[in-house]
Design goal:
The structure holds 2 protein chains of 2 kinds. By secondary structure, chain A is of the alpha/beta class. Chain A has one domain: 2-Layer Sandwich (Transcription Regulator spoIIAA). Chain A is built from 7 helices and 4 strands, in the order αβαβαβαβααα. A 4-stranded parallel beta sheet of chain A has the order 1-2-3-4. The longest helix of chain A is centred in the first third of the chain and has 16 residues. Chain B has 2 domains: 206 residues, Spore Coat Polysaccharide Biosynthesis Protein SpsA, Chain A (Alpha-Beta Complex), CATH 3.90.550; 108 residues, UDP N-Acetylglucosamine Acyltransferase, domain 1. About 16% of the residues of chain B have low confidence. Chain B is an alpha/beta fold. The chains are: A alpha/beta, B alpha/beta. The interface between A and B is medium-sized, with 18 and 20 residues.
């Protein structure tokens, strides 16, 4: 557990990247944007927030790309966070169990706040994300 | 018996705040309409009329509510002109284990033109009306869904037995929980294989499936390897739940396919759509390949239509003993149904 905390704290950098999630598209531009997202993740040493706010819903290709993002950071220090942006996207992330792999937030602001949370919280991101979601549900 | 005809008003999908939910949807293999027709039959009434009307929350069509209600009332007035003295009107807003004979007795003793059944302060959608209420000269006429029911001095019928309003998917799921745990008289339509676990006929369960009670799996449903069903889950008839998926505190409506590896928790799935019971969001699962509607065979469709309602005719039309009843219990259609007479 001590090692986990140490690993996470080494990863905390002041400016996490926020990357918009590219629109599903079979055009060369769409494919290039998706490739760029994965390349950025691959190169990133800081936390990365992938923002799905511009997407009304997610299709088969989107789920595939999200899983590729998860695979890209697996086993590395880079921390990945998703911003669902809508209840619909959040439900899809829950149904596909992606939310059990990556913390999911309602807004980039929340994700940033989480990123600046104490180390103990970062060591258990899933629990922290669930607590935050509960807190928001109650306050709403 | 002064009641000559009984009206059962079947609300369309849009009558509840959730776009997905309809009270016509089966509950553990049962349907609420059938439970009410059985109670009406016990009154000794020989026929009833069914109707449906579009409602105020429909997203696609801005349907005029007044027009819809006036259609209902014009139908009732027509019955009154034909000499019907008293009407029992049931909207499928609730499942209630009510003795309708007791309601009739109460109505007669109190000599109210309108008696509405309530559970505490909430309406249950069951009402007795005298034909005088339908007289256009009556001040109450057309004012409320149940005219005059809210007026001071008119005593509502307080029902103290089991009742559950089922206007939303969440309330429906509560009824599922109550039925599975024996809190009400409704029983799942299937064979009880162990404590609080019911399985319908022809269910295909893979060996590695975990079924955690209380749970119901409807007939001809296929549950593939590694699936977990329950607790408090209801997978209705003719569904396919693919490998590794978990269905927990949720309902899967008939003819639904669920893809592998999903987590369905606190949801209502109807074909390609999932309603999140916690937040109310309705999600289309099909673009992500997570769920879809299974095309039902025509033979099965016919069998469903003919279940429970043997004979009927349309208002104003001659009786047609063998007419096909186009009543689809899984349908989410909001189309206005004509008045249908059902012989009990």
């Amino acid at each position: 557990m001590k090692n986990d905390t140490a690993r996470v704290s080494a990863n905390v950098l002041p400016f996490p990247s926020i990357l918009p999630f590219p629109a599903a598209s079979n055009t060369p531009v769409g494919r290039a944007l998706r490739r760029d997202l994965l390349n950025t993740l691959r190169a990133s040493r800081s936390a990365v927030i992938v923002d799905l706010s511009d997407r009304a819903t997610l299709n088969h290709d989107d789920i595939g790309l999200l899983l590729e993002c998860v695979a890209e950071v697996a086993g590395r220090d880079t921390q990945l966070l998703f911003v669902a942006g809508s209840r619909v996207n959040r439900v899809i992330l829950e149904v596909t169990r992606i939310s059990s792999l990556v913390p999911v937030f309602n807004s980039a602001k929340e994700a940033m706040a989480y990123q600046n949370s104490p180390e103990e919280v970062l060591a258990y991101p899933q629990i922290a994300a669930e607590r935050l979601a509960d807190k928001q549900r109650w306050s709403a | 018996m002064t009641i000559q005809e009984t009206q059962l008003r079947v609300p369309p999908v849009s009558e509840n705040p959730r776009p997905l939910y309809s009270s016509r949807m089966p509950i553990l293999g049962n349907d609420v309409l059938h439970s009410w027709t059985e109670r009406v039959r016990k009154l000794g009434v020989q026929s009833l009329w069914l109707t449906s009307a579009p409602d105020r929350d429909t997203n696609n069509d801005k349907i005029n509510t007044n027009e819809a209600e006036s259609t209902i009332w014009s139908g009732l007035r027509r019955f009154a002109r034909q000499g019907v003295e008293r009407f029992l009107m049931i909207t499928l807003k609730s499942y209630a284990e009510m003795d309708l004979a007791d309601l009739v007795r109460f109505h007669c003793e109190n000599r109210n033109p309108v008696t509405e059944a309530r559970d505490g302060r909430r309406q249950l959608g069951v009402c007795l009306l005298d034909h005088s209420v339908l007289d256009p000269s009556n001040a109450d006429h057309g004012k409320h869904e149940f005219p005059g029911a809210n007026d001071a001095g008119r005593v509502p019928y307080q029902f103290r037995g089991y009742a559950k309003r089922i206007l939303s998917a969440k309330e429906r799921q509560e009824l599922v929980g109550d039925a599975l745990t024996g809190a009400c008289a409704m029983r799942p339509f299937g064979k009880q294989i162990r404590e609080q676990v019911w399985i319908g006929e022809g269910v295909d369960l893979a060996e590695s499936v975990r079924v955690i009670g209380p749970t119901y799996i409807g007939e001809h449903t296929v549950v593939r390897a590694g699936v977990t069903i329950g607790p408090f889950a209801s997978v209705e008839r003719d569904c396919v739940v693919d490998c590794g998926t978990t269905v927990e505190r949720s309902t899967v409506l008939p003819y639904t396919y669920l893809a592998p590896g999903l987590l369905i928790r606190n949801g209502l799935v109807d074909g390609r759509y999932l309603e999140d019971l916690a937040g109310g969001a309705v999600v289309d699962l099909e673009p992500a390949g997570l769920g879809s509607r299974i095309e039902r065979p025509e033979s099965r469709r016919q069998a469903v239509r003919d279940t429970h309602i043997p004979r009927h005719d349309f208002l104003g039309a001659p009786a047609r003993a063998n007419a096909t009843l186009t009543w689809d219990f899984a349908s989410t259609s909001t189309a206005t149904q004509p008045w249908l007479r059902v012989q009990l």
